[in-house]
Specification:
Length: 241
């Protein structure tokens, strides 16, 4: 819904549209797609540990892992000493062992040897999936991967925006490989990866041409706060029934 004529008039002056990936380009309903176990570790154990760490999480990726475990009949134990590691992952104690779940940066910071799983992570990211390492007591246990399906009409909608002379940018918290894989699927040429909600207003301001007008399209949960000046926001919501 357009609230007033000023917003409508400003829309005519836009030169760039920034699209949040999750829930705008994709369906916003990620699901577990892949399990890769390290040597000597069962895939079911990798998923059990990952699901346990995410058991108290409300993050969409964590919910996807938990749902994947449920579909496979895995009952994850309750974790203790849960902690989020901003920009990298989460950690918790499971069955008396310290479990890490997160990205490559987290593994490197904690000195975890990856035993060749880096190439598997690259392969999964190139397929547009989000790979996460699972480590137990300083040893890598495996990988879990989650993906969010692209909406059927996203590519055509982006093509129409570009035909109107607008530059289209995709913003996401995903790593660059995953982000660029999704961008290729929908025809987006410019990507801002690894952008958490806190830094999104800064990113919008720092990358905006002088005098340019931006429009942000996303869901309410991913909207940047505070709004950058000369940026117009469009929040998607379910249609009324």
């Amino acid at each position: 819904m357009i609230r007033n004529g000023t917003a409508l008039q400003a829309a005519e002056e836009l030169d760039t549209v920034v699209l949040d990936k999750t829930g705008t380009i994709t369906e916003g309903k990620p699901s577990l797609t892949d399990l890769v176990a390290a040597k000597g570790v069962a895939e079911e154990e990798v998923l059990r540990l990952a699901a346990s760490v995410e058991k108290t999480s409300e993050h969409p990726l964590g919910e996807a892992i938990l749902e994947g475990a449920k579909r496979r009949g895995i009952q994850p134990p309750d974790p203790s000493r849960f902690g989020a590691i901003p920009g990298m992952g989460v950690e918790a104690e499971v069955d008396g062992r310290r479990v890490l779940l997160g990205n490559l940066k987290l593994m490197c910071e904690r000195g975890i040897t990856l035993d060749g799983l880096e190439q598997e992570a690259v392969r999964l990211a190139d397929e547009g999936k989000t790979p996460m390492y699972v480590a137990v007591d300083s040893s890598v246990a495996g990988l879990v991967a989650v993906a969010d399906r692209v909406k059927p009409d996203s590519r055509e909608a982006i093509r129409a925006l570009k035909a109107m002379g607008l530059e289209v940018v995709m913003l996401t918290g995903d790593n660059r490989r995953t982000a660029e894989a999704i961008a290729r699927q929908v025809g987006v040429d410019r990507v801002w990866p690894r952008c958490c909600r806190r830094i999104r207003p800064i990113k919008c301001v720092s990358c905006r041409p002088r005098g340019g007008r931006w429009s942000w399209w996303g869901t309410g949960s991913t909207t940047p706060r505070p709004w950058p000046r000369r940026t117009w926001g469009w929040r998607s919501a379910p249609a009324p029934t």
